[in-house]
């Protein structure tokens, strides 16, 4: 169950990182995506920490 959650978060992170490549001209969008990515990475790391 946790593995699926982690995989889902990692997929979302990759998707937002991809979007970030095209948002470099839009500062608000860049800030939003960076915040979202950080939040998802934090959540993923918490799940990974609980898993080990």
List the SSEs and their pairings.
Layout: H1 2-21, H2 27-51
Helix pairs in contact: 1-2
- What's the gyration radius in Å? 12 Å
User: What percent of residues are in strands?
Assistant: under 5%
User: Which regions contain 5 or more consecutive residues with pLDDT less than 50?
Assistant: none
Q: What is the count of distinct domains?
A: 1
Helix content: over 70%
Order of helices and strands: HH
**Distance between the terminal alpha carbons, to the nearest Å?**
14 Å
**Annotation field: number of helices:** 2
Can you summarize the main beta sheet?
Answer: none
Overall pLDDT level:
92
**Overall SS class:** mainly alpha
Task: Please describe what this structure looks like.
The protein is an all-alpha fold. The longest helix has 25 residues. The protein is elongated. The chain starts with a helix and ends with a helix. The mean pLDDT is about 90.
Short description:
With 52 residues, this protein is an all-alpha fold. It contains 2 helices and no strands.
Which features does this protein show?
52 residues, mainly alpha, 87% helix
């Amino acid at each position: 169950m946790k593995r699926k959650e982690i995989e889902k978060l990692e997929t979302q992170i990759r998707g937002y990182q991809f979007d970030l490549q095209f948002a470099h001209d839009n500062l608000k969008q860049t800030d939003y995506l960076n915040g979202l990515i950080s939040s998802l990475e934090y959540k993923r790391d918490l799940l990974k920490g609980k898993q080990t």
